[in-house]
Design goal:
By secondary structure, the chain is an alpha+beta fold. The protein is about 45% helix and about 20% strand. The chain is built from seven helices and six strands. Strands 3-4-5-2-1-6 form a six-stranded mixed beta sheet.
């Protein structure tokens, strides 16, 4: 059996091969075209989700590219909400965005007091925290080596950096 045929067989059986999970060891770039397209789409959706959080008045929004760092997701989006009601609304907005852009939410969970809400889209996971809970779990530190995903609109960037 050739390497290509063997690769196909492993893929069909649901098993991962080296090209499915990381790509070219020399360059660190993904080599599998399906995974590359999926990752690019995940990065786009993560940026859209971050913008939706900003539009809903979340603060301290961070979008991270987890490529090669997580076996579960390609991207992570984190934002801070202002109240449990606003946070639930943001989670609903993200679920609607996911449906509209062919990234339906697989899971949508929160803790008992709605201080941490997670919306899992498979390739992208969004976390909406109240400030104290976010500081306690500090996911940015946990994923500190992940590359940031640019998501701010140019007008928002100018406004946030104005003197």
């Amino acid at each position: 059996m050739t390497d290509d045929a063997n690769h196909e067989t492993h893929q069909q059986a649901g098993r991962q091969t080296p090209t499915d999970t990381g790509g070219d060891a020399d360059s660190g770039k993904p080599t599998h075209p399906v995974r590359t397209a999926q990752r690019d789409e995940a990065v786009r959706f993560a940026a859209d989700a971050a913008r939706a959080m900003a539009d809903a008045r979340c603060t301290d929004i961070v979008a991270l590219d987890l490529a090669g760092r997580s076996p579960v997701a390609e991207c992570l989006v984190i934002g801070t909400g202002t109240s449990d009601r606003q946070m639930r609304s943001v989670a609903d907005d993200l679920a609607e965005l996911g449906e509209a852009s062919e990234h339906p939410a697989l899971r949508h969970t929160s803790d008992d007091r709605s201080t941490w809400i997670v919306v899992d889209f498979g390739t992208v996971v969004a976390h909406i925290f109240e400030p104290n809970t976010r500081a306690h779990y500090d996911l940015e530190l946990l994923w500190g080596d992940a590359a940031p995903i640019p998501w701010e609109r140019e007008a928002d960037r100018r406004r946030s950096h104005a003197p």
